[in-house]
Specification:
six-stranded mixed beta sheet; four-stranded antiparallel beta sheet
Length: 264
């Protein structure tokens, strides 16, 4: 069987921001390739450029140099084929759950009845059908994130970009949403980029984990998580991956601390 084609290719990407009157190099010579349908996690210290990288893929930002390719073509403006889910669900407070999920379809001129039917299908898939007429302020944090995921998925994107979507949630809710996300991904086999600080979360979800170095961010390590799903926390092979990744992360976090504190 032939290998799956590359869905996303990052080639020699560099990105610098201007902050408080000085240049801050965020990404330096970043290279990675992701195959169609892969679930990829990006791990690294705070400020290493993980979010910047997914913003480049989304078309929300531009690289200073290098190339960002999707299906072999340079990324231009944002597109519904590359959907973003942020840490903050960013729902419209004046719209109920169903209307929030249908919003993108309505903006794309899908007839309202059809938009609501398609949206309701995804509301069911994230187990919120009983709350379809509820408003964001009536929902828990985990429920709001479910709505945000459904809103992204209803557009049927080729690529789902998730920037620490479960970072603000409690451990139990986080675990439930991880399982629901995996279930949806296994049904759709969309390409997923998932940014996280949590090593257990990354190894539990991903086909491949990219560990990004301290700023300027570079690909420090690539770990293919060769463990069958469903994965269990006590799996020895999984724990070995976690131990290895934690060691690499520890070195990078130490670099950040030395840089910030100016101490040996």
């Amino acid at each position: 069987m032939a290998d799956k084609p590359f869905k996303v290719e990052i080639k020699n990407v560099n990105k610098t921001y201007r902050s408080h009157g000085r240049q801050v190099e965020v990404l330096k010579d970043v290279n990675l390739t992701v195959k169609d349908g892969d679930f990829v996690c990006l791990l690294g210290p705070s400020g290493c450029g993980k979010s910047t990288l997914v913003h480049l893929i989304a078309g929300l930002d531009k690289a200073d140099s290098g190339s960002v390719l999707v299906d072999g073509k340079p990324v231009g403006v944002p597109s519904s084929s590359r959907a973003m889910v942020f840490q903050d669900s960013a729902l419209f407070p004046w719209l109920n759950v169903l209307d929030n999920v249908a919003f993108g379809l309505v903006m794309n001129k899908v007839p309202k009845k059809e938009a609501h039917e398609r949206a309701m299908n995804y509301v069911r898939r994230v187990h919120l059908s009983k709350f379809a007429t509820s408003y964001p302020h009536q929902l828990s944090g985990g429920m709001r994130q479910r709505v945000a995921i459904a809103r992204a998925l209803v557009m049927e994107p080729d690529i789902l970009l998730m920037d620490e979507p479960f970072g603000a949630l409690d451990a139990q809710t986080r675990m439930v949403l991880q399982e629901e996300l995996l279930e949806i991904w296994q049904q759709s086999k969309r390409t997923v980029f998932f940014v996280t600080h949590n090593v257990r979360e990354a190894t539990g979800l991903a086909d491949v984990v990219y560990v990004i170095s301290s700023r300027p961010g570079q690909i420090r390590a690539v770990e293919k998580i060769d463990v069958a799903r469903p994965r269990h926390a006590e799996n020895a092979t999984l724990m070995n991956y976690q131990h290895k990744i934690l060691g690499i992360l520890g070195e990078e976090i130490e670099k950040v601390m030395r840089d910030e504190l100016g101490e040996d």
